[in-house]
């Protein structure tokens, strides 16, 4: 199928997008985000707070080896990650429903810029101080009775939107 191996992946050009997981509890969600990040050649995943880190069998179960290809770092808190990202010139977005948020379908990504998207805890979302420190919020429009999505589903939708604009 013409897929690259792990060495070729590590050497390949990446989409200038970092995915930050802020206190994500489920290792299956973490693994799923790794797998999606591999599929779209995301630059890195930042695992913050209680978010589990590889190697772990539960992460591997859904990552299927992507935890070995996608670059990742751990930070004590998501605020520590945001500070580091901003120092490196990234535009940082929290994926949250908040006043003045930008609907995902209207996000405009510049191929020459670097971005980070923060996804929060399955129950509490992104910490408020992290939302406040972000350059903005991106909201995924929802039309049913529920007003939240599984974190790995939300990550997939957001990563795909950036990939459409920056890689495809």
Written overview of the protein:
The protein has helices spanning 6-11, 27-39, 57-63, 78-87, 128-133, 151-166, and strands at 15-22, 42-48, 72-75, 91-95, 102-103, 115-119, 136-139. It is an alpha/beta fold and 168 residues long. The two termini are 19 Å apart.
Helix-strand blueprint:
Elements: H1 6-11, E1 15-22, H2 27-39, E2 42-48, H3 57-63, E3 72-75, H4 78-87, E4 91-95, E5 102-103, E6 115-119, H5 128-133, E7 136-139, H6 151-166
Parallel strand pairs: 1-2, 1-6, 2-3, 4-6, 4-7, 5-7
Could you list some keywords that capture this structure?
single chain; alpha/beta; Alpha/beta knot; seven-stranded parallel beta sheet; 7 strands; 21% strand
Helix content: 25-40%
Structural category is alpha/beta
Strand content: 15-25%
Query: Which radius of gyration do the C-alpha atoms yield?
Result: 15 Å
The general outline is: globular
Q: What characterizes the major β-sheet?
A: 7 strands, parallel
- The overall average pLDDT, rounded, is 97
Low-confidence stretches: none
* The named CATH superfamily: SPOUT methyltransferase, trefoil knot domain
CATH topology: Alpha/beta knot
Order of helices and strands: HEHEHEHEEEHEH
Distinct helical segment count:
6
Number of strands: 7
What would CATH call the class? Alpha Beta
Overall tally of structural domains: 1
CATH architecture: 3-Layer(aba) Sandwich
Give the strand order of the largest sheet, numbering strands 1, 2, ... along the chain. 3-2-1-6-4-7-5
């Amino acid at each position: 199928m013409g897929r690259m191996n792990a060495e070729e992946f590590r050497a390949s050009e990446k989409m200038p997008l970092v995915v930050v997981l802020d206190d994500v509890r489920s290792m299956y969600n973490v693994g799923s985000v790794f797998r999606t990040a591999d599929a779209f050649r995301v630059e890195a995943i930042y695992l913050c707070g209680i978010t589990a880190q590889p190697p772990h069998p539960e992460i591997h179960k859904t990552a299927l080896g992507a935890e070995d290809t996608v670059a990742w770092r751990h930070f004590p808190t998501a605020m520590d990650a945001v500070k580091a990202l901003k120092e490196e010139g990234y535009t940082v977005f929290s994926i949250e429903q908040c006043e003045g948020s930008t609907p995902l379908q209207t996000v405009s990504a510049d191929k020459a810029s670097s971005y980070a998207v923060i996804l929060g805890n399955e129950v509490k979302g992104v910490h408020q101080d992290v939302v406040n420190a972000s350059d903005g919020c991106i909201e995924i429009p929802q039309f049913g009775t529920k007003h939240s999505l599984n974190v790995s589903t939300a990550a997939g939708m957001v990563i795909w939107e950036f990939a459409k604009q920056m890689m495809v």
